[in-house]
Amino acid sequence: MSRYEELKEKTHKLGELSPGTIQERWLTCGNPDCRCARGERHGPYYYFAYPDRKTGKTAQISIPEDVVAGLKARIKNYEKFREELWELVEIEAERMRKGE
User: Fold this and answer.
1) What does the alpha-carbon distance between residue 19 and residue 48 come to, in Å, rounded to a whole number?
2) Least crowded by CB within 10 Å, which of 32, 41, 71, 76?
3) pLDDT 10s digits, 24-80
4) Ranges for the DUF6788 domain (predicted)?
């Protein structure tokens, strides 16, 4: 099996994909009597930042801690997919240059 065919097969087996990143934040509430006013911030709170196709900008949503692990796996799958997709493009371009 050629590297091209191998990569095509692998991309189908990656599973669920999510483009974006997870951000962990520690926040202050603004209450002067709260512990966060003394430096002990609240959190962590998790946010998923992703590309918004409608605006072309980065959008973000708050996510519960219990979905973070699964989302990290989907983000990792997406990163692998992108790397392998670019390798496929490079192989295909090289084949075209050679007239294959």
Assistant:
1) 10
2) 32
3) 999 999 999 999 999 899 999 999 999 998 999 999 999 999 999 999 999 999 998
4) 4-72
Tokens encoding 53:
């196709």
Q: Give buried/exposed letters for 85-94 (b at 16+ CB in 10 A, else e).
A: eeebeebeee
Check whether the bond before 32 is cis (ω within 30° of 0): no
The pTM assigned to this predicted structure is 0.73
Q: Whose structure tokens read 């946010």? A: 47
Supply the DSSP string of 8-31, one letter for each residue: HHHHHHS-----SEEEEEEE----
